[in-house]
Amino acid sequence: MTTENKEHRRIKSYVLRTGRITGSQEQALENLFPLYGVTCPTNNQVLNLEEIFPENKGVIVEIGFGMGTSLVEMAKANQANNYLGIEVHTPGVGNALKLIEQEQLNNLKVACHDAIEILQALPENSIAGLQLFFPDPWHKARHHKRRIVNAEFMRLVTRALVPGGFVHMATDWENYAEHMLEVLNATPELENTASDGMYIPRPDHRPLTKFEQRGHRLGHGVWDLYFIKK
């Protein structure tokens, strides 16, 4: 690899861990991904959301949905919206596909791909919201450069958001919450909805995950941020 290529190689905000995949998850990836899966276009082509979601509803993108349980719950409870979930962990994608099929949801599709490349493929002013819940905090100082929330990420997000669209983030790492708040406040297209200019209480539409419930029992805090595109 040349020095120039090293300089332009994007630092990944995640480590790709395939993990142990069950037979049913593997079967879901094979049989259900053609029904509920989204493939990132190549050669700088645009992701056609109208083709993915024929019903004319606002599209909410969630990055890093884990095993898909809370995203499926949210999509089931909010049929007025379409949801596009992005996750690189194949067992999680397989599990989400099983849940989508089980609930027979037509307003949720999933992509097993790098979220940055998906954002780059989205048309301008095309999504109603962006959700990022409990991303990898990369808590060691030397790894902070891997955090997905940065100025370039927000440029892609605000480009894709419709006016009035939202950015909703949540983390259980206070240092990362402070970092998120700093980056979002520095994004001129966005406006904080918190009355004190800081964080909001967890809204009812964000399901409380088992991971979060365990954190509450251990005394961990959770910080929600909710910004609107001007």
TrEMBL record:
One of its GO terms (molecular function) is tRNA (guanine(46)-N7)-methyltransferase activity. NCBIfam families: tRNA (guanosine(46)-N7)-methyltransferase TrmB (TIGR00091). Its EC number is 2.1.1.33. PANTHER family: 3-DEOXY-D-MANNO-OCTULOSONIC-ACID TRANSFERASE/TRNA GUANINE-N 7 - -METHYLTRANSFERASE, PENTACOTRIPEPTIDE-REPEAT REGION OF PRORP DOMAIN-CONTAINING PROTEIN. The lineage of its organism: Bacteria, Pseudomonadati, Pseudomonadota, Gammaproteobacteria, Pasteurellales. Substrate binds at K140, D172, T209, K210, F211, E212. This is tRNA (guanine-N(7)-)-methyltransferase. It catalyses: guanosine(46) in tRNA + S-adenosyl-L-methionine = N(7)-methylguanosine(46) in tRNA + S-adenosyl-L-homocysteine. It comes from Psittacicella hinzii. The gene is trmB.
